[in-house]
Amino acid sequence: MASSVKQLCTICHDDGISNSAVTWCTECEVLFCGDCEKPHSKSHLSKNHKTMSADDYQKLPTFMQEISSQCQDHKKKFELYCSFHACPCCVQCVTDKHKMCQEMKPLSELLQQVKSSASVQLFEKDLKIVKENIDAAIKYLQTRITTSDTQNTIAIEKIRYTRKSIDDYLNKLEQDLLNDLESKHSQLKSNMTSLMQQMEQRASQINQMQSQFSETTQYTTELQMFIALREIEKITSQTTKYIEDLESGDHFIEKI
């Protein structure tokens, strides 16, 4: 799109004056204010120049405003067109760059009725087709982006659901293991406590005999001593056998 900046008269601007332009000369490629346009339109050399309003000129696309009828290299007007290189040429261009080009045509012949030529309608149709294709491609990409966003959201939900399922499974597994451990620990502790109580009873019995042994030897008769020794022997033998049975079993093996 063309710029909406205010257009100034080229002639006045060169003199340091900021007058708004009203006319654009397509041949001089100069913007004129009302005062400067009058002598231009009356001059014998420029009175037949084609002009357009500055407002219409400003509506032109920027790339068209930048197209000049003069060669930028030699500052001469384009007069020929090289079909081989597809570019306009001034007479100096022919000498410098296009000596070997065979398809040089007068530019004026090509410009006759160019606006009414079939190529204008053809290019307009091509632009329409290209625009439709671009719009279709953009619409497709927008649809793909929307679809991709939806798929991404679904994927995130699946990942989170999977994570929750794994967490739930691990939590249940942890709780089952803890419950099993607690059950085994309670059973083991109960067994060890019961065993310890049994051993404490036997220890108490041995302690009692041990504490009374000196009195037994001092104050009993020979018969009493004989029978007492047999009883002590019996109890110590049973206790020793009890301990040996415990040691030969798995009662003293660590299970945790």
TrEMBL record:
Lineage: Eukaryota, Metazoa, Spiralia, Lophotrochozoa, Mollusca
Keywords: Coiled coil, Metal-binding, Zinc, Zinc-finger
Domain B box-type: 4-54
Database matches in Pfam families: ANCHR-like_BBOX (PF22586)
This protein's record includes keyword Ribosomal protein: no
PANTHER family referenced in this protein's UniProt entry, alphabetically: B-BOX DOMAIN CONTAINING (PTHR25465), E3 UBIQUITIN-PROTEIN LIGASE RNF135 (PTHR25465:SF41)
GO molecular function: zinc ion binding
Protein name: B box-type domain-containing protein
Origin species: Mytilus edulis (Blue mussel)
InterPro entries hit by this protein: E3_ubiq-ligase_TRIM/RNF, Znf_B-box
Coiled coil regions in record: 171-198
Chloroplast recorded as keyword: no
